[in-house]
Design goal:
278 residues; alpha/beta; Rossmann fold; seven-stranded parallel beta sheet; 7 strands; globular
Length: 278
């Protein structure tokens, strides 16, 4: 299977490189705004240098592909409309239009939990603890918490429009990714430890403990994320669907049964198994 990956060198893209690049059944093409030097941990890969908001520079990378994993985006919840509009709105339209023209069958979209982020905002920090009775599944009302979340909701809707109104892409998978982190912080203490390193708070403080509690609910390990993408690439039954990107965390408030039943997603990790940083 020929697979185009956009936004290659972000946290999620590098997780795919780490866990799927060497699979014999995949031939990846990597697209990113910039390359990495050969001595970089992710250097040495052939990379198409293109900006997804510029259709002419990225269009040819879609030719000959069986699937697209579209991760390129502005990823920060504090972004202004100016920040998110071109990469997340124009870029999403360009990626879907290129997939349609190139007759790409499968489109995996890196959406976000921030599409429903107001549920967390209204119920934190209580929602971070195991006794919460809140469960969000794919049927709940969309409630973005930011311009960023709003653009990802737009991306999900645009994907549905394309698969229901054009011949290609034939399948669209929206992954509402929770908390995938770089290798060094790929554990439920990652955000808290990063906060200590940045001087934001001290280890053991209430702020530190709240970050741990949140990540024990929100964490999606890099291997679980790559596995979920692999499930989408292997599936041939979904036309359009939404799945939460989260590990099998005991205290999560996001539903996994839908992903288990529809695409056979079987996450291996649970944040509750950690009681200290590595």
């Amino acid at each position: 299977m020929n697979v185009l990956l956009t936004g290659t060198y972000g946290r999620c893209g590098t997780a795919i490189i780490d866990h799927l690049h060497d699979r014999q059944n995949y031939q990846f093409t990597y697209l990113n705004r910039s390359d990495r030097p050969d001595n970089h941990p992710y250097g040495g890969f052939d990379t198409v240098i293109a900006n997804v908001s510029d259709y002419d520079t990225m269009r040819s990378a879609f030719d000959g592909q069986d699937a697209v994993i579209h991760l390129a985006a502005y990823p920060y919840v504090d972004g202004t409309w100016h920040d998110v509009f071109e990469p997340n709105v124009i870029g999403m339209l360009n990626a879907l239009e290129a997939a349609r023209e190139a007759e790409v069958e499968t489109f995996v979209f890196g959406s976000t939990n921030h599409v429903v982020g107001m549920y967390e905002r209204e119920n934190s920090p209580e929602i971070y603890h195991p006794d919460t009775d809140i469960v969000l599944d794919h049927t709940v009302s969309v409630r973005p918490d930011s311009f960023y979340g709003t653009t990802k909701s737009f991306g999900e809707n645009l994907g549905r429009y394309y698969v229901e109104n054009y011949e290609y892409p034939k399948r669209f998978y929206a992954l509402r990714i929770c908390s995938v982190r770089d290798k060094a912080y790929d554990h439920p203490y990652g955000d808290a430890e990063n906060g200590v390193e940045e001087g934001e708070f001290e280890r053991g403080s209430s702020e530190y403990n709240e970050q741990v509690a949140r990540m024990k609910a929100m964490w999606q390990s890099r291997r679980d994320f790559a596995h979920q993408v692999d499930c989408c690439l292997q599936d041939e039954n979904v036309e359009f669907d939404v799945f939460y990107g989260v590990s099998d965390n005991y205290r999560r408030w996001f539903d996994l049964e839908h992903a288990r039943s529809k695409i056979d997603y079987r996450p291996q990790d649970d944040g509750e198994e950690w009681n200290a940083p590595p």
